[in-house]
């Protein structure tokens, strides 16, 4: 039976989960007209998912290390427990799919089984359909989720079946380091501990004494409900602003989020916060070519979103300056690198410290804003072209909003996940993103 210890950060995500705060990622993918009936589509989706080895793994406790856990192949794996079909009315398919996605994102994954689910959503106009995917964060960070989930697409599945499976035999390796390795292991651990101390000090310095964090509209005791909204932005328009202002497309998108938040607060009739809200912006530490089963490899930047600044150009300049400072320091330093700190902790610390750590997020940041890259090539499922893919991120305890983005086909697809009680007007915030990009574009063109 295949077995693999959970990496420290994977273990942290596993133990941070509660009933009201499920720790799964999601994606809502929309496809063009299907050539087959729903029953055949469900069979294809099930067959593709069952062929992905990682999706057969479940979490089990281990004796050593104490407090640790391991991924082990589920001997009773049955893909029918994970892949389901839901027929939607189809009156407004996109809105119906987003509404259902919010309801399904509320529900924690069953921990005794491989922690993932897929839903085939049918009923779209002209035979179009959608697939909702849920993967536990312990199973996948954003980039690894793409690598795992891409196995359902025609192009990836075909490459997998035609690719040679021969591998050079690797001789067994002892778990005990040899004499020459001991010095290297010791030096590595000392460097890791030194880095952890530095990150820990940064986290303490950046923490806010008020445990309620920033603006009340972005901080909320969880209602256990989720609401999802989606929006599509033209990437060429984003790049037009980037060319005028300098920096990166991600700077433009972060400034767009800041402006949308400002509009949203004004529409609510709420005062602007005394201090700008802080966004946690994940950064992958995954090396190019790393296998998709190599564990969560994340750090992050902390970025103030200048919602108190009335000028959109000044907002963009402020975001660019903040991101430049973060990049100069690097993803392994600073308070945003709290995930690096988690990588240095003993499994027992994650197991028993999770209840404390879960409430600390609001002391560091107010919302998550993440950008998850997708393959650049055209993708399809059962011959139906992928039209849009909206990523969805989990909510930290005490927070009401997470924004996830993925570029595909010349467009930026944005998925917003919010606490359903705290942010019942999520659609207005989504509309504000398009409005803010239009204002930045007007400035860039002028």
TrEMBL record:
It comes from the Bacteria. InterPro entries: Acyl_transf_WS/DGAT, O-acyltransferase_WSD1-like, O-acyltransferase_WSD1_C, O-acyltransferase_WSD1_N. It catalyses: an acyl-CoA + a 1,2-diacyl-sn-glycerol = a triacyl-sn-glycerol + CoA. Residues 275-295 are annotated as: Disordered. Residues 295-440 form the O-acyltransferase WSD1 C-terminal domain. It is an enzyme of class 2 (transferase). Residues 6-252 form the O-acyltransferase WSD1-like N-terminal domain. SUPFAM superfamilies: CoA-dependent acyltransferases. Its EC number is 2.3.1.20. Keywords: Acyltransferase, Glycerol metabolism, Lipid biosynthesis, Lipid metabolism, Transferase. Pathway: Lipid metabolism; Glycerolipid metabolism; triacylglycerol biosynthesis. Belongs to the long-chain O-acyltransferase family. NCBIfam families: acyl_WS_DGAT (TIGR02946). This is Diacylglycerol O-acyltransferase. The lineage of its organism: Bacteria, Bacillati, Actinomycetota, Actinomycetes, Kitasatosporales.
């Amino acid at each position: 039976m295949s077995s693999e210890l959970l990496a420290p950060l994977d273990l942290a995500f596993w133990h941070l989960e509660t009933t009201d705060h499920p720790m799964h990622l999601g994606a809502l993918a929309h496809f063009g007209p299907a050539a087959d009936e729903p029953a055949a589509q469900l069979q294809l989706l099930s067959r593709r998912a069952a062929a992905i080895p990682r999706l057969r793994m479940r979490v089990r406790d281990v004796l050593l290390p104490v407090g640790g856990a391991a991924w082990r192949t589920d001997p009773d794996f049955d893909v029918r427990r994970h892949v389901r079909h839901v027929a939607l009315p189809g009156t407004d398919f996109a809105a119906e799919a987003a509404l259902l996605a919010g309801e399904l994102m509320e529900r924690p994954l069953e921990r005794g089984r491989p922690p993932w689910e897929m839903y085939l959503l049918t009923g779209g106009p002209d035979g179009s359909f959608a697939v909702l995917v849920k993967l536990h964060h312990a199973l996948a960070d954003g980039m690894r989720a793409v690598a795992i989930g891409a196995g359902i697409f025609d192009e990836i599945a075909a490459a997998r079946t035609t690719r040679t499976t021969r591998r050079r035999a690797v001789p067994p390796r002892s778990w005990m380091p040899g004499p020459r390795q001991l010095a290297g292991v010791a030096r590595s651990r000392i460097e890791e501990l030194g880095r952890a101390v530095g990150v820990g000090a940064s986290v303490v310095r950046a923490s806010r004494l008020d445990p309620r964090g920033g603006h009340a509209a972005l901080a909320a005791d969880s209602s256990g409900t989720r609401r999802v909204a989606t929006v599509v932005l033209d990437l060429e328009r984003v790049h037009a602003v980037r060319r005028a202002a300098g920096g990166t497309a991600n700077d433009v998108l972060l400034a767009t989020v800041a402006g949308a938040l400002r509009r949203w607060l004004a529409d609510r009739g709420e005062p602007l916060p005394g201090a700008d809200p802080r966004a946690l912006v994940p950064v992958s530490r995954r090396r190019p070519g790393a296998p998709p089963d190599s564990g969560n490899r994340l750090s992050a930047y902390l970025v103030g979103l200048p919602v108190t600044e009335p000028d959109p150009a000044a907002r963009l300049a402020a975001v660019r300056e903040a991101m430049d400072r973060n990049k100069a320091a690097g993803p392994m330093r600073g308070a945003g690198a709290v995930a690096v700190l988690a990588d240095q902790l003993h499994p027992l610390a994650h197991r028993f410290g999770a209840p404390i750590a879960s409430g600390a997020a609001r002391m560091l940041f107010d919302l998550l804003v993440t950008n998850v890259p997708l393959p650049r090539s055209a993708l399809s499922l059962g011959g139906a072209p992928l039209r849009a893919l909206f990523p969805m991120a989990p909510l930290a305890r005490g927070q009401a909003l997470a924004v996830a983005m993925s570029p595909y086909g010349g467009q930026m697809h944005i998925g917003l996940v919010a606490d359903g009680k705290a942010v019942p007007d999520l659609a207005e915030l989504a509309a504000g993103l398009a409005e803010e990009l239009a204002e930045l574009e007007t400035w860039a063109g002028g």
